[in-house]
User: Fold this.
Amino acid sequence: MHDLRYAIRTLARTPAFTAIAVATLALGIGTTTAIYSLFDAVLLRPLAVDRPHELRVVKQLVSVGKISKETTYVSHAWFAELRSQPEVFSAVTAFAEGRDAIATVNGRRSRLIGGAVFVADNYFELLGVHTAAGRLFTTDAPGVVDRSIVISEAMRQREFGTARDPIGAQILINNVPFTVIGVTPASFTGLEIGQLPDVYLPLDTMSIAQPAAITLSNRALWQVQVIGRVPAGVNDIAAGERLSTVRDFMMLPRMNGVPAGQQSLRLLPLETGLSDVRERFARPLTLLLAMGSLLLLIACANVATLLGARAASRRAEIVIRTTMGAGRSRLMRQLLTESLVLAGVAGALGAIGGSWATQVLFDLLPQDASPVQIDIAMDRRVLAFTVVISLITALVAGVVPALRSIGFDLALALRDRSRGGAGAAHGRPFAVAQIALATILVVASAMFAKTVYNLTTVDLGFDPDHLLQVFVAPGERQYQGPALEKFYRAAYERLRAIPGVVGVTSAQIQLFDRGKTTGTVDVAGWEARAEDEREVQVFQVGPTYFGTTGMHLLRGRDFTEDDVIGAGRVAAINDVLARCFFGERDPFGQTIKSGGTYQIVGIVRTAKYNSIRDKDPPALFVPYTTVRSRPRI
Assistant:
């Protein structure tokens, strides 16, 4: 305590130095803490469930020629048969995402931002999730017959507040009534990183609560994800071998018509959850964390230089204390205590600033129709990280100056006392380190700036200026067939009547959306070979799609309302598909097969459909009325 009090008094006598040192360290610690907080939430944080290290998800690899796909989705029938076999998992469950879920609570209709999740009856039991209020689904009370629903703590606070008990309340999900039986704890945020579900419904109610009817018994539909616990002492390789045995029993050849020899199954760890958000942001977050660490090292070198210069000015004090009997270890402890005080105050300020900066970084993440939802609140893990880097900062910034301060010849120090500026050379190594680290940071920043510039100058293939994309969900009112077409025609007319609107169209998937629809094509006169890619990206669009989005037609025409309303069997292709499948032949007016036969009436220049970094894929455009779709305007 004496060292601590003396350190505080000593630093208080030099407020300018103390303020500069604390501000410098706080900037480095706060920046690193903010980046690590987001890095941890996306990449490292384990699921808030019981024994997450035991959880595995079933993943299948489907290969057809050179085309291969990995997916964690399987059919419900597949899951039902797997559940009856105890060879692989000690316990197994399944869940499925609810698309375009609209909830009506207390007469208010709204789209569930977090979405709905359909879960098997033992979902919460397997995960070890306990209720915050009411009860959850169990194998004894699955909640199918009485149409029960479990809501999240976030939805409870948003829709019911803290005063009202939601248990027993009725909620309409896509106009289907459900009764609230329980509330999940705030710590449970589901199994998918980037999604915070609002409601959980029984899996067997999926066929009635989804806008589009779904038949769970259809083995060709892959709509559920299977998770299980691997028995103690069984590794993933052995479990995978057992899974292959069960696969043969379950007659997987029936799944989607893919031969068994072209399918393989394996288990993936689920400790940190499922996420395509992780794949999207892992690299940029890692680079940010590396740059933040460099900034912290520069801050440490800067403060070490200041401490070295300050120690040189305190030579007289140290000489006097040494002559009075203070040992080198005693002086070393005192100087390190001062460094710890500086780092401690900077760490506290950095934690406060880092909490705010984390939200700023999160707001900079690119969003789409399904916004990324992550719990970025500072938890014990992030606080522990802040404490650790504060201690490391104190050591890095304080040890070398402290050693230099006490590692001198006493007689020489007394003789040189009157010269002033003694020890000025002590800061040279830190100055060199600062320059070296700053050079790395500047070069990395320059490369980052060049990358950003290159991305901003990429030809998107469409005109993004004044282009507004709006998500609509007609399924909430069960629009189907002619009623759906009437809905869109009315929407087109009302939007076109708005002053300043020059074009309106629709598409099943928006531009730069993460979603993607693919299919295979056949062209007359083109013979498939093993090395040929038959897979193309399929866009189901509305009238005047190319004119409204600014895509450049190389030949032919845009889609008309007659094409869409009459479900005309016409199509447009991009120039990449034309080169891949027609070669030197003229594709205009030719027919192409993809789930039906279409006549090509337009050829459009390729564009960046999902991401700036995308390679140019072959693309097929068809009217959305020719296939089952849910367009966006």
